[in-house]
Amino acid sequence: MSKLGTLGARLHHGEIGYDFVKNRKIWYGISVLITITAIVGLAVRGLHMGIEFQGGAVFTTSKNMSVSVATAEEYAEDASGHDAIVQKLGDGSLRIQVAGIDTDTSDRIKDRLAEDLKVDAEKINAELVGPSWGEQIANKAWQGLGIFMILVVIYLAIAFEWRMALAAFVALVHDITITVGIYALVGFEVTPGTVIGLLTILGYSLYDTVVVFDSLKEQTRDITKQTRWTYSEIANRSINSTLVRSINTTVVALLPVAGLLFIGGGVLGAGMLNDISLSLFVGLAAGAYSSIFIATPLVADLKEREPAMKSLKKRVLAKRAQGTAQDEAQDAPVTGDDAYDDEEAAPAVVGPRSQSASRGRGRGRTPGKRR
Fold first, then answer.
1. Which of 145, 144, 142, 164 is nearest to 154 (CA)?
2. Which of 75, 97, 220, 349 is the most buried (most CB within 10 A)?
3. Domain 21-48+133-219+237-299 sits in CATH 1.20.1640.10
4. β-strands 189-190, 48-49 pairing
5. Are 108 and 128 spatial neighbours (Cβ–Cβ below 8 Å)?
6. Binning pLDDT at 50, 70 and 90, where does residue 35 land?
């Protein structure tokens, strides 16, 4: 536990480190594979849009219903002739969603459900949802996403540089694509809560990235005046120095979200919690991954293409090669005539060294004034 507790300090001071930038092609490959899987899932299965986006009716029964979800779903589909989504809420009531029906059809379905469920029709609450409201939410979400992306790129370009702005933009697109793709693969319903979750993860994803970028900017100030580190190596040191901080903030954020997803949504059966918590959970995990494995290595790739950084890398490697050659020359064994010449120049000392008379003078004398 003591070693684990000091891991962050050791990483921050550069005593230990993991070479994330050097293995960036592996991380790029993993991200490409995950992204392609998400896109394929999105193309094949598509998003399961909620009733807020399609329009239809929502029927909510009274509490403590003894009917199972599967049975209620069968009743709703028989009564409406459409696919139905049934969720059992925490108080035992049923939430039945049927898309693509009008007012007259809604009243008929309500009466049929009351008969099948053996409850009074007045105890079933019916609400009609128009598709135009969902379209407005989607349009506002796209507008908000576009404005957010533009402002982020402008801010990062001013506060840092355009390469960091581009890397952060790629990381954000990476996180959103993976989150939406997993939503399609899992088959969760897309509701306004999902939209809220997607917009929320953008800030979390950007937070870790900006923390690493700030450390990188500080450590690369006047980088061309030294010949000890290349830009990629300093970028790797920046990731390591903020690694434990990123992991801690991500874990702390994921714990309550996991509680919403697995306890609130799974045990209590709260549908809205499922919608928002899944997008938050996947987005937070993807954001932490992209800030470490995608954004900063991508910045290093872009910076290493600059003439100044290429020249710096050559100087650093040349200095290291020179130092290695000197170390090998010092460690090389001396034989033959070279050994004879070295013995003439500096004879080896074997056994105890003899002290000169002046250095031995005064030994055994009690301390005091010299005579």
1. 164
2. 97
3. yes
4. parallel
5. no
6. very high
